[in-house]
Structure formats: structure tokens, C-alpha cells
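call fold(seq) -> C-alpha cells
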Amino acid sequence: MFAAHANFWFGTLGRQHDRLGFCYEAGPCGYGVHRQLVQAGHLCSVVAPSLIPRRAGDRVKTDRRDAVSLAQLHRAGELTAIWVPDAAHEAMRELVRARLVAMHAVRRGRQQLSGFLLRHGRTYDGKETWTRSYRLWLAGLRFEPPAQQIVLQNYIAVVTDAERRRDALGEQIRVPAARVVDGAGHGPCRRCAAWPWWSRRRWWPRWATWPASTPRAS
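ret:
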């Protein structure tokens, strides 16, 4: 939609100004609009919605009012632009999001399997679940109705597939993360180089599980 009207905007406004300045709120559409504007030779700022100054009591929100307000604040220099990642960083973010989705699938599959076992009175006597002994115990379970055995095997397959996807995505993140450098052009410090950036505690969500092959920071 933006690409269809971009040439019209550039042609109309370009007659009066050599270089245009744009801004828009960060949202689910990503940074494609920003890249198109920058490639066309114009200025563009992506603004965090939480950092936009708002008047007290102004609760009416429409596209037109938001556009006028953003234009006025942008001209006054009162907007705080966020850092826009390049294509490589954005691709890395997508990998991390995909791994989080796989982790959610693992947790959801384990909860469904635990609920199925609880409904049928099958309890594990060990101290910790999802260990090697627990998986052997799951493999040895047998249910008399064939339908229930099929359900059990399906739940186990769902968890196994989600774990496989989680581990595979973790390995895909590990390789390019070792080559990531900061904005100043310096590589990671020697102490932190052993762990990829996505596995460090201060950047990883508290509820996330640690990759099995990645040492946990103390």
C-alpha cells in the first residue's frame, strides 16, 4: 500500500522541497517503510509510541489526529527516534522470535501431556520430570484402550517435535551471533565471546529455558 502511493507523495511534495522528512510510530509492520524512504534519499525517524508526548486528557485517537500530532512534534524536535536495525539484525530477531514460539510449543505440549497423565492417574515417582529416566518411563507406559495409547503417542510426538525445532533454531542463532559486533565496530569481549548474545541472562526473558548446549552464566 505504501509503495503504491510513495511515488505520488514524492512527486507532489518534491516540487517544493529537495529533501523530505518523515516519521511514524513503530508497530507490527516492521521497518520496510523506513528503508524505502531512506533509499529514496529522504529522512525518516521511527518513534516509540511510549515516548511520544501527549496532552493530559487527550483521549480521542484517530489516524488524522495522530498524523497531525506527529508532524507537529517532529517539526518541533520533541520526538525520540529509536534505533532501526539493518536487515541482518532484523533477520536475527526473527530467528529469536521463532525460537520463542518453539519454546512456547514445548511448554504447551508438556502441559497437555501432564494433564492427560493426571486424568488417568499415571504419576511419575521420580524427583524431576523430563529427564532421561522420565522419558524412558513415558516410553514404557501402556494404556488398555487403543485410543488412549494413540493419544499418548501423539502428545509425546508433539513435545519431541517442538524440542527438536527449539534446539535447531538455537543452533542457527549461535552461528551468526558469534559474528555480531556493536555499533562502534568492536567485537565482544573475551569473557563474553563464549556465549552468544541471545543466551545471556540480562537479555533473555526470565521465563525462558536455557539451551541444553549453552553454559548458563553465573
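Residues 87-199 form one domain.
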